[in-house]
Amino acid sequence: MAQPTGETALFVDTAGWMAMADAADPKHATSRRERDACLRRGGFLVSTDYVVDETLTLIRARLGLRAAAEWWAQIDASSRLRWEWIDPLRAEKARRWFFEWNDQDFSFTDCTSFVVMKELCIRRALTTDRHFSQAGFETLPGSDR
């Protein structure tokens, strides 16, 4: 797979995956359209092992184990999704972000996502999580949580 760049990559956060997985989510259709538009332009989706952990757990809790298995099978088969792993160096950078931005209520997983986005120069995130816009990233379809 080619190296995703800030111009071709869209980071997908847990809230973005959930919006696409759950047809009852108010942002379901718009999230899926944003994903599809990125892929039609030849772009890539980028996410992390921490995000997949959160997403699998949330899908199972909200939609059931079968839905989690179907979601995993779909993303696991994608050639247009790049998984980034949170290694010790990235975890340390995220820890610093987590404690330095003490006026925000970012989760540690959010901070790991921010580190990856900064490293790969990704400016846009598919998420409804307001923390991404608070951290200076563009959110699609827009944050409301």
Overview of the molecule:
By secondary structure, the protein is α/β, with parallel strands linked by helices. Helix content is 54%, strand content 14%. The chain has seven helices and five strands. The chain has a five-stranded parallel β-sheet with strand order 3-2-1-4-5, with helices on both faces. Strand 4 (124-127), helix 7 and strand 5 form a beta-alpha-beta unit. The radius of gyration is 14 Å and the shape is globular. The termini are far apart. The mean pLDDT is 93.
Concise structural overview:
The protein is an alpha/beta fold and 145 residues long. The chain has 7 helices and 5 strands, in the order E-H-H-E-H-H-E-H-H-E-H-E. Helix 1 (14-21) crosses helix 2 and helix 3 (49-63) packs antiparallel against helix 4 (65-76).
- Which class best fits the helix and strand makeup? alpha/beta
Radius of gyration: 14 Å
How many angstroms separate the termini? 33 Å
The total count of strands amounts to 5
Give the biggest beta sheet.
5 strands, parallel
Based on Cα principal axes, name the global outline.
globular
**Lateral arrangement of strands in the main beta sheet:** 3-2-1-4-5
Task: Give the SSE layout.
Layout: E1 9-12, H1 14-21, H2 28-40, E2 44-48, H3 49-63, H4 65-76, E3 81-84, H5 88-100, H6 108-119, E4 124-127, H7 130-134, E5 138-141
Question: Which structural traits does this protein have?
Answer:
145 residues, alpha/beta, 5-stranded parallel β-sheet, 54% helix, globular
